[in-house]
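In this section we walk through a basic example: taking a raw amino acid sequence and producing a predicted 3D structure, encoded as discrete structure tokens. The instruction is simple. Fold the sequence below.
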Amino acid sequence: TIVYAIIDTALDQITLARAGHELPLLLRRDAATGHLRVDEIGSEGMAVGMVTPEIFDRVIQDKSVPFHNGDVFVLYTDGVTEAMSADGSEFTTARLGDALKYLHQHSPQEMNQGILASVESFAGTGTPRDDITLVTVRHT
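The resulting token sequence is shown next.
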């Protein structure tokens, strides 16, 4: 799976294509309420190599979303959201979103460190079940 994203700060937007990968997250303030919100950025697509190029090309779509000053864009692998606790429950995208809101005033590096600490606290310090990749970008 893959996500290809272009972050254009001149146009204040992100354009991405998602080939079966986890939905990227966008943390921002809601214009109407002023509250922080985390949105999944959905775009159509399926994993690379699963179907013929003709079908893949018909299915995959670019998606553009506004990316304003202070917004935070997060890409991650399922090793983050599917990390398991001792009782067998998963970390989930909802918990990832809550961690982002809690850490929103920190730098992207500190946000990543805080998220990874939350995942480790949730799942324990044993060997992770899956790889974990986390990329966080703040528009300034």
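Looking at the output, two observations stand out. The helical segments are 53-59, 78-81, 92-102, 108-123. Strands lie at 2-8, 13-19, 25-29, 36-40, 62-66, 72-76, 134-138. In the next section we compare this with other chains.
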